[in-house]
Amino acid sequence: MLIPTDLRYSNDHEWAKANGDIIRIGITDYAQDALGDVVFVDLPKVGAAIDAHSAIGEVESTKSVSEIYAPVAGTVSAVNDTLKSAPESVNADPYGEGWICEITTTNSADFDALLDAAGYGALTNN
Questions:
Q1: Contact 61, 33 (CB under 8 A)
Q2: Which residues contact 84 (CB under 8 A, 6 or more apart)?
Q3: What confidence tens digit (pLDDT) does each residue in 19-50 have?
Q4: Against a cut of 0.90, is the pTM above it?
Q5: Which tens digit of pLDDT belongs to each residue from 50-59?
Q6: Cα 77 from Cα 44, distance rounded (Å)
Q7: Integer angstrom CA distances of residue 88 from 37, 43, 52, 54, 59
Q8: 8-121: what fold?
Q9: Is 36 left (phi over 0), alpha (psi -120 to 50) or beta?
């Protein structure tokens, strides 16, 4: 299982990458593996104000449906529209082409509070 060291992680198995106050998020390799083949991604709406840890969408797989939680508070500034026609990108490249959305954060402390790679590895026993 891949756990890139340049990302931060939530207890809900989302990853986050900061570029200034813009945080790109997606689900982890661990999460996509547990879900199985992803067949649909319900993306949040651009412009939506969100709270940290609130549900912002869903990932549907052949096994189950799982909610996507915002690791930070802010406003959704972009979504990965490619997932509408190619949801399998979440499985093939969860840390690259399979990203879910970008959030312009209103509280950098939310990002700072996320797990580092070692902490996420301990959470998932990897």
A1: no
A2: 41, 43
A3: 999 999 999 999 999 999 999 999 999 999 99
A4: yes
A5: 999 999 999 9
A6: 10
A7: 7, 14, 26, 24, 11
A8: OB fold (Dihydrolipoamide Acetyltransferase, E2P) (2.40.50)
A9: left
